[in-house]
Write a structure and sequence with these properties.
methyltransferase; 236 residues; nine-stranded mixed sheet; binds S-adenosylmethionine; Rossmann fold; 33% helix; 7 helices
């Protein structure tokens, strides 16, 4: 069964993205942070001190994603995070199936190693690919498209191992053209919060009931605050 929750301009589905996303039809942008393909084993005693990596493996958040979910017939633009091991495939998809694309970088100010004797991931990549009519909105276009932003830690993670920072998602959403945004791997709802704050309609999908509930709570809060701002503006 697929649970559906509507909150203002947001519609959230609890279930499998690969089943639900194709049925949702066209959105102006798909903004997604899918499971990364990473090797999280090794590193001995150091690794033992990082229980978050166990969670990533237990929840299959280290197995990558099927790029068939990035479908240019279902979105005007796609913003997709990916780890090194899937980046070449993602760039090839962007090159072959979209009009233009940009490789963008989130430079983390507080990187944590995944395992010893490997590069520390102090940058994460995302690709912004678009078709005609969905060129980046251009509100914030940096020369090197680098965002230097701290990764959430502790309680700010919303009890999720890979929550994206609000500041990063706000910057991404400011550059998204159009009105409707879908995130098929919603997690705790970071894309949805940024979409609502940017005045867009949001559709999110998440399979994990705990993360889904967190997303409902965060997006309800964002919708309530956005309504309060609207009312204040009407009074002024
Ligand atoms: C990298 S996390 C996204 C985190 C999110 N950006 C945030 O800030 O909270 C990927 C999410 O996709 C979810 N997920 C993985 N496979 C899925 C699937 N097939 N359908 C729906 N959700 C899925 C996981 O439960 C996880 O919460």
């Amino acid at each position: 069964m697929i649970a559906t929750v509507r909150i203002g301009a947001a519609t959230l589905y609890m279930g499998d993205a690969y089943v639900i996303r194709p049925a949702l039809g066209f959105h102006d942008a798909d903004v997604m942070d899918p499971p990364y393909l990473i090797r999280a084993t090794g590193a001995g005693r150091y690794r033992a001190r990082r229980p978050m990596m166990d969670r990533i493996m237990d929840e299959e958040l280290h197995s990558g994603f099927d790029m068939a979910i990035v479908n240019p017939l279902l979105c005007g633009a796609a913003i997709v995070f990916a780890h090194n091991d899937q980046l070449a495939e993602l760039l090839s998809l962007a090159q072959g199936q979209f009009h233009r694309h940009a490789l963008c970088v989130w430079q983390k100010t507080n990187p944590q190693p995944i395992a010893n004797k490997h590069y520390r991931p102090d940058v994460e990549f995302y690709v912004h690919a678009w078709n005609r009519g969905y060129h980046p909105a251009g509100a914030i276009c940096d020369l090197f498209r680098v965002s230097r932003i701290t990764s959430p830690r502790g309680s700010a993670r919303f009890d999720h191992p890979t929550t994206k920072p609000d500041a990063l998602m706000a910057k991404i959403l400011a550059n998204v053209a159009g009105d409707s945004v879908c995130d098929p791997f919603m997690g705790t709802g970071s894309t949805g919060v940024a979409a609502i704050r940017a005045g867009k309609r949001f559709t999110g999908i998440e399979r994990n009931p705990d993360y889904f509930q967190t997303a409902v709570r965060r997006i309800t809060d964002a919708v309530t605050k956005a309504r309060a701002v609207d009312q204040l503006e009407q009074v002024a």
